[in-house]
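Supplementary Note 3. Input sequence used for the single-chain structure prediction.
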Amino acid sequence: MTDGITARQTQILKSLIDEYIETAEPVGSEALDKKYNLGVSPATIRNEMVLLTKTGFLRQPHTSAGRIPSPKAMKFYVEQLMEEKQMSLTEEVKAKEEVWDSRNDLPLLLEGVVHALAERTKSLAIAVIDEGKASYSGYSNIFLSPEFADLEICANIFTFLEETKRLQELFFERVQGGSPVEVVFGEELGWIGMSPIGIIATRFNAGEKRGALGIIGPVRLSYPTIIPILRYFGNLVQEISE
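The predicted structure, written as discrete structure tokens, is reproduced below.
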């Protein structure tokens, strides 16, 4: 038993989140029963999903019989359940080669890094320096997520990216730098119109300057893939710009 839920509930929760990350749709017990070898009946899966909803790990959108994970569940998944998909040595070498030539020019280096990050993660990538400078890449990736079909949400994201004060607050106050990679949800920030958003961030030092790299997307970002990539680039920036 961990974090107040049983081993069976944990297994069901992990399967449900894996499915939700892949499909962006609320997940029902039938889908879990068919696709994941959970070793229990659909009725048992359904009962456990009801309990997971009561304990705040799952939510039921009004229009659907299926469930979606809450930010609490996503944090639990990131910290304890997911299996990271590590970058291969070839991918690491290629990533380093892409940005190596701009190692002596931090703004240029960060532009290259956010471009490489956006390309690899199919998300919006951002680099922020504590002096307030920011670089972005991958704006168009925002429109690939069904969650962001609502133009008002897109407008909120783009407005947020223009607000230096909020960017500084997010990357240098909310993201403490206590662990190599941190996950923050719009809902936790309490910022209006940002609740469908997930942010993965890592901090770095570049000489005298403090900086952060971030990936912005829906709550169901592909954490197993993106976290190792972001960690690698954060370490790379620190290593080659000291």
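The longest strand covers residues 197-206. The domain at 89-240 is CATH 3.30.450.40 (Beta-Lactamase).
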